[in-house]
Structure formats: structure tokens, C-alpha cells
């Protein structure tokens, strides 16, 4: 097949567009070219005119490629795996006998190629041998963005990554949950179907069927016997149609007139309805919603289309064929380009919409931008070469196509319409879409009306905007159509999936006890919150009564009174120790540690009040942390006292190292160290999973108990574990010092206090986990009070007894006599 349209120029652009379709013999080989003409693709002829318009506009521009003309070399693309490479070989070889990697004719002046997406995939490997830039007019194909496999290929279309999201947003807007898919059998179509199904699954939309639309004659022949049968049988009233510029859908559905006219079609502008010769097709697609790439209008393009005719471009074989088909002209001459008996007023504008669309399509817009991209790249390259090496007057700058790549890769230009053009797929933006409504009027007059738009660059709630009053639905539909597999379930019922059916097909089942559904089509009934219970209709929850361990409760009052009484008693004990601070019994056991321990015990008693009353965020956070810190102070003080006692009775001999430890106050450093460790644990607890207000609706029937959830159980047990470790250490050290001279030695009392303390908390753990509600809180408060009373009673009550009732024992002389007597007994026994 020879070139169909050629315009000479100093530099040229080769173009391969699918303009007409041939029937290819399945038995013929690639070198046989006896093809039968089938059909002219009217819509795609606009690609030719967009190419011509852009090149003429550039040639008239004195500021772009001055003193240089731009031409083109145009070929048709075969819809056949066997024949798709025939015309590219003819173009490369320069003669009709296509011999790979051999050039016989005149050296080609083409610096770039413009083609469709599907042919770009097949031509890419061949053209990569020559490093010729190849620009695609179809929608963005992720496969072609692989710079390692296709380093010389550039995609003009923006990314369609948000197309699936946009279509699903449209489905959700109209509550269409039962749809069919008709998808191009290209890898891009398969990828789009995968993305679309993921978005549908996220939003509860089901697919009833999937039909694949062929791109080549071979695939069409294998599919045509079973094609569109599911569309006819499906109960889905909405069909998503995704095709490419190279699709054969127009000839793949030979019986489209049988398609139900009440179907709602959602498609893209990569394939629309201007390519069909049969009037009946428009009735099937009346009311279709089309996602079209948003772009500005190209000034002058419509006027250019109005003036196009065969006499203006007599060398255009496509135009002559187009004119003869649509205006019934007679073709004469060997070249089949001479026309006779054509109407005088024949023009593209006078043709019905289904024969030719006067508005610029997405593919034509991409071709327009591709031509400008090549022109600007050549212009920039020539300017750079002239700066580096000026040429003499009258000579021309020569270059190879591969030299354009650095300029194309970094190209960013604003086309005459004011839109940004970017060929780097890494910086390529996502597409914004105009939503068009296709309308068919009598006598084949159709038009597209913009009814909305979708933008991925705004918040999700504002991405889709529609003017529903402008939408005209399919023939016979007077209101917004429905497309569902099963009717809605009313409140009080839930959807029950049907075995072997998609999730959108279901039965309606009443909600279980204490569960409700207050909306239609709920997947699951909602269990009433702990604060509420379900009514008999299972569509509403009523509030329960809220309660908690309050100060007014008898149990709460007892615990509060106990805590206050013992805290006051501890203050009294502290006062006694302060008053008798210079007595031997107070001084002998490190009075400052005694003060710290008594103050800590006051806070231990008072911290139990945080567990009583209505919980709030502050009290929930303070309960466990305050408890952990003040008890850490108390237990670490006990540990310091026991170590002090042990050291005090081991430094009686001269030259002991322990004397220095005791004098330096090393045991006292245990308190801040332990407190810092506990504060770190509490800080980690509050930083990761702090306590919070929770409810307990199961402990008391008809009541909701407000409690404080511990948040991180691990952190809680870390705090308690650290306290237990301190208590165990204190008990061990006190136990080791229990037999030392005991006039003022409190080791026995410390041992007993730690024994009681550990017993209380070991008993607490199983009891705490076996109770619920207010009783659980009371158990914890009771354990806090008991352990605090144990420390107060076992350590300080004996001392208060001596101070207040037996002052004669509170004397240093008695302590010394006791020490001498003990040492004498030891010496006597040793001798």
C-alpha cells in the first residue's frame, strides 16, 4: 500500500493512523497485499485534518522554524497482527517491496512518527533500531512508559490513573451497583478493568459480565460469534464501555440494532459514535455519558474544517474517499482521487454528527500537541547548534532524528490554546475529565452536552460535579435509571448474600436481638451500643441508665471515709515523728527516709480517691500513673531503709568499705533512681496507649457502668511488675537483716510489712480479673488501702508505741548496753 497523503517539507513527520479497515485473508502471508476494502472510519479522519491544520499553522508562524517548512508522510494502519507492520516497512524501505533494514528510495526526511497506541507497541521495537522519536495519540498506556523497553517513545495523553475513580464516583452518585463491562482486549484495557474492579469492590459495586472488544481482525473473528450476547441477556442497565482509538467495535457488533435502547452506556472519548455508518447505532447509545479529557478549544480549527474539500487538498486520497462515500460523488481517474458530480455546497459541517464530528476529539488534540512538540524540539535544537557552530548563508542545518530526544524529554511548552504540554511521563499530570451527554436527534443530528466534570486535584467530596437537569437518558427512560441486582432492604433488615452470586445480589433478613439497621441496604445489622438497647422493630436503640462507683454509693462512701481516715492518721504519725525527731528511735532509722515514706503513704491513701466518682480523661490518666509513682516512692523508700539498716550493722568494724557507702548516703539514691524508672514506664504508657474512658454494659442488667480502660495492658503489668520487683527486693533485704540487734532495728517490721504488702497484691490479681464493673474498681481501691495500711501499721505503729507509751525505751543508753551484751555473747560463744 503506497502512502495515502504526502506533503513535502524541509523536515517531515511520518504518521500512521487507522483510517480505513481491510479484510485480511487469514491464510495470506505478510508479503501478499491483495486486500479488500471494508469500511472508512469517519471519526479517525479528523486525525488527518488535525495533523494538516497543525503543520499549516506552524509553517505560517514566523517565530517557529523560520526559513524551514514542515511536511508529513501519512499512512493507514492495518487492523491485523499480520499486516500492521506492512506500511511501516514501506515507509522505512522507500519502495513497495519492503525489505527489512534496507533503504532503496530517497532518504527520508522524517524526524518523528505519530501513531496510535496499539501500533506503537508493535512498532516500538522496530523503530528503536533507528532511534526515531515516536509520539502516540491514544490514551496513556502504562506499558509504554517503560523507558528501558521504549526509550524513544513519548505519550501525548495525560495519565488516566483517576479514570476508574471517576467512573466509580459516577456509579455511586446514581447508586448504580450492578453494571456490565465491555473492555478493549489490549493490555491497557485489561489494566483498566483491573483498576476498575478494585475501585468497585471498595465501594460495593458488582460486575455482572465482562465482554472483550477486539482490536485486530484476528481477535474479532474469534470473538464475533459470541459477542454481546451477555449484554443482551444481562439485567444490568448500565454498561461501562472502554475502547481505544484503534478498536474495531464499530464492526464487531454487526447486530447493534438489537441492543436494548434502555441501557445506559458510560464510556470514554477514545471511542465514540461518530464512526458508525448505521443510523440505528445512535439510538442504542442515546443518553450515553462520556468521560473526555478536559482541554481548551483550539482557535481556528473549526473554521479550518469548514473550508476543507478535495479541491483544496487534491493529493489527499483519504479526503477523496471520504467525499465520495458521504456525498455520493463519482470517482474517476487511475489515482481514484478525481471526483465528479459532487454537491456544490458539500462540506464537513453539513454532514450528520454520526458521519463527522466538528468538535476536536482527544486524539486530534494529542496529534496537534505532538506536532507542536516536534516543531519546538527541532527549533530548540537548531538554535543550540547555531550558537555552537554558525552556518553560512543559504546552507541548511542537517541532523538525525535521534538528536531530538534530549529536547523532547525535557520539553515543557504552552500550546496556542494555553494548555501545558509535557512529554516526560514522570512529570505527566493526571487527566481532568469533562462528562459529556451524547444526544441523538431525528435525521442523524447528534451532539454532546457537557453535564459535569471530574477532577482528581480537589477534595474527594468535590471531585465529581454533575448537572442532572441537563442529562437526557436513554430512549424510553424518563427518570434517573436504576441498576441493581436486588431491591433495597428496609430498616430493620440486613442483606444476606446469596451463595454463588455477587455481593450485590442478596436476600433481606431481619436483624438479630439487640441489633438494628436504621438505613436501607445495610450489609450488617449494628449491635446497639453498650449505652443502648434495640426496640422491637429493630430500627432504633434506646439509652440505658449510666452508673459508676460514686461518692454517694454506700461502698464508695466507706472507701472514701477509710482513705481519708488513714490519710489523717498518717499525717498524725508524721507529726509525731517530726515532734520527736531528735529521739534515738527516730534518728536511728533515718528520720528523713521516714518522713518521705509517711508523705508517700499520705498520697497512697489519697490516690484511691481518683478511682471513685464519675470517670473523666484526667482521672483515668492519673489513676494508674499516680498509683504507680507514689507507691514506687513508698516501696523504694522501704528498700532504702532496709539497706540502711543492713549497712548500719555491718560498718561497726574499722576500715570497712560499707562505712563510706553509708556516710555518702548511697542508699538514699535508690529513691530517685526507682522513681525515674517508674516515670519512664508511665511516660511510655501514656505515649503509646494511655488509659481512657470506657463503658461496661454487661455487669449490671439495664445499666451502663463507666470505667477507666487501662489502655495498654502490657504497660500496666510493667508498672505493677516494677513495683513487685521493688517489693520483693525490699522483702529480701529486710529478711536478711531480721536477726541484727533489734532495739531500734526495724528490719523485722520492714520484713513483715513487705510480706503483707506482697500478699495483698498477689491476692489482688486473681480477684481483680474475676470481678467486673464497680466491684472491680472497689477491689483495686481496697487493695491500695490495705497495702498502704500494711506499710503504715507494720513500720510506724511499733515506733509510735515506744515514742508515746514507752519513752524509757527510747533512750541511747539502753541501745548501747544491748549492743555490748550482744558482742559479749558472741565472744563467749566463740571462745
Describe, in short, the structure shown.
The protein has 23 helices and 29 strands. By secondary structure, it is of the alpha/beta class. The chain has five domains: 237 residues, Rossmann fold (3-Layer(aba) Sandwich), CATH 3.40.50; 167 residues, Rossmann fold, CATH 3.40.50; 29 residues, no CATH class; 51 residues, no CATH class; 277 residues, Rhodopsin 7-helix transmembrane proteins (Rhopdopsin 7-helix transmembrane proteins).
Topology record:
Blueprint: E1 5-7, E2 11-17, E3 20-23, E4 36-40, H1 45-59, E5 70-76, H2 86-93, E6 110-115, H3 117-128, E7 134-136, E8 153-155, H4 163-173, E9 178-184, H5 187-202, E10 206-213, H6 217-223, H7 229-233, E11 238-242, H8 249-252, E12 264-268, H9 280-285, E13 289-293, H10 301-307, H11 317-327, E14 330-332, E15 338-340, H12 362-388, H13 405-409, E16 412-414, E17 420-422, E18 433-441, E19 445-454, E20 464-466, E21 493-497, E22 506-510, E23 515-516, E24 526-527, E25 532-534, E26 541-543, E27 545-547, H14 554-579, H15 584-588, H16 591-607, H17 617-648, H18 657-663, H19 670-688, E28 692-696, E29 703-709, H20 713-736, H21 747-770, H22 773-805, H23 812-830
Parallel strand pairs: 2-5, 2-6, 6-7, 7-8, 9-10, 9-11, 11-12, 12-13, 27-29
Antiparallel strand pairs: 1-5, 3-4, 13-18, 14-15, 16-17, 18-19, 19-20, 21-22, 23-24, 25-26, 28-29
Helix pairs in contact: 1-12, 4-5, 14-16, 14-22, 16-17, 16-22, 17-19, 17-20, 19-20, 20-21, 21-22
Amino acid at each position: 500500500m503506497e502512502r495515502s497523503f504526502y506533503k513535502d517539507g524541509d523536515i517531515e513527520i511520518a504518521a500512521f493512523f487507522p483510517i480505513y479497515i481491510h479484510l485480511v485473508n487469514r491464510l495470506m502471508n505478510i508479503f501478499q497485499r491483495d486486500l479488500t476494502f471494508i469500511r472508512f472510519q469517519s471519526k479517525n479522519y479528523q486525525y488527518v485534518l488535525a495533523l494538516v491544520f497543525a503543520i499549516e499553522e506552524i509553517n505560517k508562524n514566523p517565530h517557529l522554524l523560520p526559513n524551514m517548512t514542515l511536511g508529513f508522510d501519512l499512512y493507514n494502519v492495518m487492523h491485523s497482527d499480520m499486516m500492521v507492520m506492512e506500511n511501516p516497512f514501506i515507509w522505512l524501505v522507500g519502495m513497495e517491496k519492503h525489505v527489512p533494514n534496507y533503504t532503496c528510495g530517497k532518504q527520508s526526511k522524517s524526524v518523528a512518527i505519530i501513531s496510535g497506541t496499539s501500533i506503537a507497541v508493535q512498532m516500538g521495537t522496530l523503530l528503536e533500531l533507528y532511534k526515531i522519536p515516536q509520539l502516540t495519540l491514544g490514551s496513556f498506556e502504562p506499558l509504554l512508559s517503560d523507558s528501558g523497553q521504549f526509550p524513544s517513545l513519548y505519550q501525548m495523553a495525560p495519565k488516566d490513573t483517576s479514570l476508574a475513580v471517576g467512573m466509580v464516583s459516577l456509579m455511586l452518585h446514581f447508586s448504580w451497583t450492578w453494571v456490565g463491562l465491555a473492555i478493549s482486549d489490549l493490555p491497557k484495557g485489561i489494566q483498566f478493568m483491573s483498576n476498575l474492579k478494585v475501585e468497585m469492590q471498595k465501594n460495593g459495586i458488582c460486575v455482572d459480565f465482562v465482554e472483550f472488544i477486539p482490536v485486530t481482525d484476528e481477535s474479532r473473528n474469534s470473538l464475533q460469534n459470541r459477542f454481546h450476547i451477555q449484554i443482551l441477556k444481562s439485567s444490568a442497565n448500565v454498561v461501562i464501555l472502554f475502547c481505544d482509538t484503534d478498536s474495531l467495535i464499530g464492526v464487531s457488533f454487526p447486530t447493534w440494532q438489537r441492543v436494548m435502547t434502555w441501557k445506559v452506556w458510560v464510556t470514554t472519548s477514545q471511542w465514540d459514535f461518530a464512526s458508525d455508518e448505521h443510523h440505528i447505532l445512535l439510538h442504542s447509545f442515546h443518553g450515553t455519558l462520556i468521560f473526555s479529557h478536559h482541554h481548551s478549544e483550539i482557535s481556528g480549527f473549526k473554521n479550518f474544517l469548514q473550508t476543507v474539500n478535495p479541491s483544496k487538498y487534491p493529493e489527499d486520497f483519504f479526503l477523496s474517499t471520504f467525499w465520495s462515500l458521504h456525498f455520493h460523488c463519482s470517482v474517476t481517474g487511475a489515482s481514484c482521487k478525481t471526483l465528479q458530480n459532487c454537491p456544490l455546497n458539500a462540506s464537513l459541517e453539513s454532514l450528520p454528527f454520526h458521519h463527522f464530528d466538528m468538535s476536536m476529539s482527544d486524539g486530534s488534540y494529542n496529534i496537534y500537541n505532538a506536532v507542536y512538540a516536534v516543531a519546538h524540539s527541532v527549533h530548540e535544537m537548531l538554535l543550540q547548534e547555531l550558537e555552537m557552530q554558525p552556518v553560512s548563508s543559504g546552507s541548511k542545518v542537517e541532523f538525525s532524528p535521534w538528536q531530538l530526544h534530549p529536547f523532547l524529554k525535557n520539553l515543557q511548552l504552552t500550546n496556542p490554546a494555553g494548555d501545558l504540554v509535557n512529554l516526560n511521563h514522570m512529570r505527566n499530570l493526571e487527566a481532568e475529565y469533562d462528562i459529556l451527554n451524547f444526544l441523538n436527534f431525528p435525521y442523524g443530528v447528534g451532539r454532546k452536552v457537557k453535564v459535569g466534570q471530574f477532577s482528581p486535584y480537589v477534595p474527594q467530596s468535590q471531585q465529581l460535579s454533575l448537572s442532572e437537569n441537563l442529562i437526557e437518558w436513554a430512549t424510553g427512560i424518563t427518570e434517573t435509571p436504576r441498576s441493581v441486582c436486588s431491591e433495597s432492604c428496609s430498616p430493620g433488615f440486613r442483606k444476606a448474600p446469596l451463595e454463588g452470586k455477587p455481593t450485590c445480589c442478596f436476600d433481606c433478613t431481619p436483624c438479630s436481638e439487640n441489633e438494628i439497621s436504621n438505613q436501607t441496604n445495610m450489609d450488617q445489622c449494628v449491635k446497639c451500643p453498650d449505652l443502648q438497647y434495640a426496640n422491637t422493630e429493630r430500627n432504633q436503640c434506646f439509652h440505658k441508665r449510666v452508673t459508676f462507683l460514686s461518692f454517694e454509693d454506700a461502698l464508695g462512701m466507706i472507701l472514701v471515709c477509710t482513705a481519708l481516715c488513714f490519710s489523717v492518721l498518717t499525717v498524725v504519725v508524721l507529726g509525731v515523728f517530726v515532734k520527736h525527731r531528735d529521739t534515738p528511735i527516730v534518728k536511728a532509722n533515718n528520720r528523713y527516709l521516714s518522713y518521705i515514706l509517711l508523705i508517700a503513704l499520705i498520697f497512697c491513701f489519697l490516690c484511691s480517691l481518683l478511682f471513685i466518682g464519675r470517670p473523666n480523661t484526667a482521672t483515668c490518666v492519673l489513676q494508674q500513673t499516680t498509683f504507680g509513682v507514689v507507691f514506687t516512692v513508698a516501696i523504694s523508700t522501704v528498700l532504702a531503709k532496709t539497706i540502711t539498716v543492713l549497712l548500719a550493722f555491718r560498718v561497726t568494724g574499722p576500715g570497712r568499705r560499707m562505712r563510706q557507702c553509708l556516710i555518702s548516703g548511697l542508699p538514699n539514691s535508690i529513691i530517685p533512681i526507682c522513681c525515674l524508672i517508674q516515670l519512664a514506664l508511665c511516660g511510655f504508657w501514656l505515649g503509646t496507649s494511655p488509659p481512657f474512658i470506657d463503658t461496661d454494659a454487661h455487669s449490671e442488667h439495664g445499666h451502663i457502668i463507666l470505667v477507666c480502660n487501662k489502655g495498654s495492658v502490657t504497660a500496666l503489668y510493667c508498672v505493677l511488675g516494677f513495683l513487685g520487683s521493688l517489693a520483693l527486693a525490699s522483702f529480701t533485704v529486710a529478711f536478711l537483716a531480721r536477726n541484727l540487734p533489734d532495739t531500734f532495728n526495724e528490719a523485722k517490721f520492714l520484713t513483715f510489712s513487705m510480706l503483707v504488702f506482697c500478699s495483698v497484691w498477689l491476692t489482688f490479681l486473681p480477684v481483680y480479673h474475676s470481678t467486673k464493673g464497680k466491684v472491680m474498681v472497689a477491689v483495686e481501691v481496697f487493695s491500695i488501702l490495705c497495702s498502704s495500711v500494711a506499710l503504715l501499721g507494720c513500720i510506724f505503729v511499733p515506733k509510735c508505741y515506744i515514742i508515746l507509751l514507752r519513752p524509757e525505751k527510747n533512750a541511747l543508753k539502753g541501745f548501747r548496753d544491748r549492743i555490748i551484751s550482744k558482742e559479749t555473747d558472741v565472744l563467749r560463744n566463740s571462745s
